[in-house]
Structures are given as C-alpha cells and as structure tokens.
Design goal:
The complex is a heterodimer of chains A (285) and B (217). With 285 residues, chain A is of the alpha/beta class. Helices cover 37% and strands 24% of the residues of chain A. Chain A has an eight-stranded parallel β-barrel, surrounded by nine helices. Chain B contains six helices and 14 strands. Chain B is globular and about 55 Å long. The chains are: A alpha/beta (285), B alpha/beta (217).
C-alpha cells in the first residue's frame, strides 16, 4: 500500500504569494507565511515555495519567508526558483528548506544534479520539469518559468535527471497550469510509469476529482495544488489587504473574485475525498 | 540547575537544520558539532542523517568520532538516532557492498525492495508519510508515549534495519510488501527511521517526550 501526498504550492514574488495562469499574469493573493501556516494546520503533507521571479529580483525576501516558516512549520519544505549553484542550494537549506527544486540550472548544466545529490543527498534534490505540448504532440521542457524554449524532450529529460541522481521529479503542465481544466494525464502517466523515483504532478487542478484522477489514472505519487486551495484560503484568512499592497496587482484580491473554472476547496476536503476513492493519505486526527 | 547540553552530531552529510529547529522548538539546548570534546561532555547525543551509509561511516571515521559516540552510548548517555542515524547504529549495511557501522545494535541494514511479492511496483526511496505500529514493546514511558498506533510519520529512505533481537523493536512500518522495524529501543539508545522533525505536531511531541523522559529540559 502506498500513501499519497498533497503538496500545496506557493508561488512567491517579492514578499507576496502570487498566482498566475500558464505561469503568467501574476496576481497577489496575500502573505505567504500565513497561507503556509494555514496549510500546515489543515494537513498539508509538504509545502513547496517557488520564487517565480527570482532570476529577476534576487532571493532575499524568499530566504526571509523560509526562515520564518521553518521555525513553526514541521513538515518538509521544498524551495525552488533561481537556484543556480551549490552555494545557492546551501543557502536555502541553511535558511530552513529540506529540499530544493531545480529546473533552469539543471537543463543548462545537468552536472549540478549529480553534484548536488552527492553533496546534499538525492532525496534533497527535486528536479522540476515545465512541459509544454507542441502542436506536433511532442512535449518539450521549458525553463525560467516557462519563458525560455530549450528544445529538450520532456520524457528523455525525465529519464536523464533520474540517472543523474534526482530524488523526485516535479512535473508541471504549463498548458494546464492555473486553468483548473485538470492535470495533463497523458503527460503524467508517461513520466510516472517509467520513473523509479517519486513523481509529483502539478498544473491544472480545478476540483478534487482532478487530484484523484492524477493518482488513479496518471500514476502520480504526490499531487501539488495551488489555485484549488488558495482561493478558499483567502476567504478563511480574510487576507489583510493593507499588508498586501506593498507591490503588485492587488485588484484581484480586493475584488475577492475567483475563477469559475476552479472549485476552491480545503485540504481536509481533498483528503476525505481521496480516502473515499480508496486512496491512502494522511489525515489529521 | 545547569542547562543540559545536547550535541547534534554533524558528520558533514545532509541537512541538520530541521533537527535543530525541532529541538529549539521544544526547548532543548543543542549544539551542532563534530568536536570530540563536546561529544565527550554532552548530556545527550542526537545522531541525525540523510544520505548514504558508506559515506556517513567514512566521514565519522575520518573525523575520528566513532570511538567517542560508541563509548558515550555504552556509558548510558541518552542517544537518539534519526533516519540514517538509526541505520548507523547497526553492525553492517549491504549498501554498496559490505559496510561496517557503529555496532551498538545487533543486526543489519538492507535495501527496500522495489516490488512486492505480488508484482506491484514501489518507488525507492520511499519518500512518503507512512504509519507506525506497535509490536510487543509497550509505548508508554517511551518517546512514542503521545502517539497512537497507526499514526503517520514522514519517511525518506532506501534502506531499512533488520535487528537480530526482535524484543528491541519499538514500532514497525509496512512498505513494498514487507514489514520492517521503523523504531528501536535498547536501554539509553532509541532510534527511528522516520523524521519526527518533519512529521507535524505529533513528530515534535516525540522530541518533547525524549527531552522530558531524559530530564533534558
């Protein structure tokens, strides 16, 4: 019997939690540490923080968020976004991350996967793959939050990162990301069925059934969700708009609108529906 | 009363900050170190670890701290092993051929199978929450005092321990069709395969129990 994980993803821009669609058009949702704490208290199995503009602005506010979070949240924290060198990795681990997520740096220089997994342990190194389905049906890996074309075949790359010593694969369907249309099951299945390391599915969850599908049909070992939880959490936290006006587009937040395609829900609801569907997972007592 | 000193043994492998955070949270006075003098005067030791058995033992031997750890444990100093720290307490591991461990506990370390006897495939390493269950040893007045049978903890490992003396087993866990020892206790030595520091409030309570039961806070 396997136990499946649900991993809320928090996209960070500067001091704020943001969310986009297809990784663009970022909207400010609130303070990341408040969301993180709420997810911890309501049964998140891990958390992943992605600095979505790290390469543009530097990483200091991310490190502050991590060290603040790591002192009060005792589940695994994965941090990604703009990590280029072993020293970068060491810095976020020192700040309190348990694992790091590499994408751009890994494609530019795959040796970093080998060197990092040797230095920090394989289980510390997650490789993120941002996949876009081309018009010819081929899936290609993109970097820099899906801004940069690489021409690298997603499935060949997934095999390679595993051989290089990655501990887990975090696969994002950029086409589905933020849309609520459901995971790209074809993509996930192809990767999960071949991998001998755990595969985390991300991109497209719009309702709980999508999470269940990614495990039962896609074969994912863990599921990462953002919009599905964030929009419900905003209501729960009654986000303090004053503190969210530091930078960025806050109109969305003030209007408290949600996407029609996302049926926002809670971690407790996701877990109980998973159990009902016969999927083992951890529930808080 | 003089504040107790707990040394988190740093053998230059993996990430020890989360163990330190959890200890800080329950009020333990910890130092992360590989200094023999500190190990020799510590009131309690934590042997953490993520990574490979062979590399860990190489580092421990190179740092020349093996003898101190073994001697302190034999003197009766409370020793808590976590994850790889559990495996290192054993006599030997089959990881990358034969590797010799600290030899404080009798038994060996084996690789998790990647499929069960009915052919179902399992990912190795196991990176997952999983449940722990009691065996013959009762949990009251142990570090699992506050934990219910069947509670979930966070696991990250490719190897598991097979103790020679089954009466030392504190808890077991199932994965890939096998039931293995996920916690062990022998006098002052106690060790778990899972990461209590990453297992939510229940996990933190395990550190708190250890601290209280050994009069460390």
């Amino acid at each position: 019997m396997s136990v499946y994980r649900v991993i809320p993803r928090l996209d960070i821009k500067g001091p704020n939690l943001v969310k986009g669609i297809h990784m663009e058009g970022l909207r400010v949702l609130g303070q990341p540490d408040r969301f993180a704490e709420y997810y911890y208290q309501t049964g998140a199995d891990e958390l992943i923080f992605m600095d979505v503009v790290a390469s543009l602005y530097g990483r200091n506010s991310l490190k502050d968020i991590i060290s603040l979070t790591a002192k009060k949240i005792f589940i695994p924290l994965t941090v990604g976004g703009g990590l280029r060198t072993l020293e970068d990795i060491n810095e976020v681990l020192r700040a309190g991350a348990d694992k790091v997520c590499l994408n751009t740096a890994a494609i530019n220089d795959p040796d970093i996967i080998k060197n990092a997994s040797k230095k920090f342990g394989s289980s510390t190194i997650v490789v993120a793959i941002e996949a876009i389905k081309e018009s010819n049906g081929k899936y290609l890996a993109y970097t820099d939050n899906a801004r940069e074309y690489t021409g690298v075949d997603v499935f060949e790359w997934a095999e390679r990162v595993q051989d290089m010593g990655a501990g887990e694969i975090y696969i994002t369907s950029v086409d589905r990301e933020g849309t609520g249309e459901g995971f790209d099951l074809e993509l996930i299945k192809e990767i999960a069925s071949k991998a001998s390391i755990p595969v985390i599915a991300h991109g497209g969850a719009g309702k709980v059934q999508h999470v269940i599908d990614s495990i039962q049909s896609g074969g994912a070992d863990a599921v990462s969700v953002a919009s599905l939880l964030h929009y419900e959490t905003i209501n729960q936290l009654k986000a303090d708009t004053d503190s969210n006006q530091k930078e960025g587009n806050t109109e969305f937040l003030k209007n408290a609108r949600s996407f029609n395609s996302i049926q926002a829900t809670s971690l407790q609801d996701i877990k109980s529906q998973m159990i009902n569907a016969g999927i083992s997972c951890r529930q808080l007592g | 009363m003089k504040e107790k000193l707990i040394v988190i043994i740093d053998y230059n492998l993996g990430n020890l900050f989360s163990v330190k955070h959890a200890c800080d949270h329950v009020g333990l006075n910890t130092v992360t170190s590989n200094d023999v003098e500190l190990i020799n005067k510590a009131d309690a030791l934590i042997l953490p670890g993520v990574g490979a058995f062979g590399e860990a033992m190489n580092n421990i031997n190179e740092l020349d701290i093996k003898e101190s750890i073994v001697n302190r444990a034999k003197e009766g100093v409370p020793l808590l092993g976590v994850c790889l720290g559990l495996q290192l307490l054993f006599e030997e591991s089959e990881e990358f051929g034969h590797q010799e461990g600290l030899g404080l506990l009798a038994g060996s370390v084996k690789r998790l199978p990647s499929s069960s006897s009915d052919g179902q495939k399992f990912k190795v390493p196991q990176i997952s929450w999983n449940t722990i269950h009691g065996e013959s040893k009762p949990w009251s007045s142990t570090i699992l005092n506050s934990v219910d049978d069947g509670e979930y903890f966070y696991f990250v490992h490719s190897y598991y321990v097979s103790p020679s003396d089954e009466s030392e087993i504190l808890c077991t866990t199932e994965y890939a069709g096998i039931k293995y020892c996920s916690g062990i206790m022998k006098n002052n030595i106690i060790a778990v395969q899972f990461h209590p520091e990453k297992s939510g409030e229940k996990g933190i309570s395990v550190y708190r129990n250890w601290a209280i039961q050994n009069d460390l806070i």
